[in-house]
């Protein structure tokens, strides 16, 4: 059992998203209500993930990364693979829907 999603540092971000395995990143902000509501679900997703990695990225700690990937509102969820964006979702949503979108990316291989 894992202990939820790890928070990425600016320095670790590019290496993490370059994985061959799909990488789900939750772009969030501490001051964002919907983001805080989603955090327990993101941690559950991380604990249950088998075929992909789950990370969190605080946009206030890395505004240049948020800008680079066009994150204009939070929460924004992006699935990367080999450094490329494969899927983007925005706003609070059920964990099951997030998992379905990630699985769809995995099946595209």
- Outline, from the CA principal axes? globular
Kindly report the name of the CATH homologous superfamily. Answer: Glutaredoxin
Using the coordinates above, name the CATH class.
Answer: Alpha Beta
Portion of residues in helices? 25-40%
Number of domains: 1
Write down the oligomeric state: single chain
Query: Mean of residue pLDDT?
Result: 92
Low-pLDDT residue intervals, each spanning 5 or more residues: none
Largest sheet: 5 strands, mixed
Under the CATH scheme, the architecture is 3-Layer(aba) Sandwich
Radius of gyration: 12 Å
Specify the structural class: alpha/beta
- Could you please say which CATH topology applies here? Glutaredoxin
Please state roughly what percent of the residues sit in beta strands, choosing from under 5%, 5-15%, 15-25%, 25-35%, 35-45% or over 45%. 15-25%
Strands across the major sheet, in which order?
1-3-2-4-5
The separation of the N and C termini measures 27 Å
**Number of contiguous helices:** 4
* SSE topology string: EHEHEHEEH
| Overall number of strands | 5
């Amino acid at each position: 059992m894992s202990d939820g999603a790890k928070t990425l540092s600016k320095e670790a971000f590019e290496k993490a998203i370059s994985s061959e395995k799909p990488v789900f990143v939750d772009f969030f902000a501490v001051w964002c209500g919907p983001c805080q509501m989603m955090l327990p679900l993101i941690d559950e997703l991380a604990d249950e993930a088998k075929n992909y990695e789950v990370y969190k990225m605080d946009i206030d700690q890395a505004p240049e990364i948020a800008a680079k990937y066009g994150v204009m509102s939070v929460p924004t969820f992006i699935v990367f693979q080999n450094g490329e964006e494969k899927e983007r979702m925005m706003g609070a949503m059920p964990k099951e829907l997030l998992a379905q979108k990630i699985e769809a990316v995995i099946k595209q291989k």
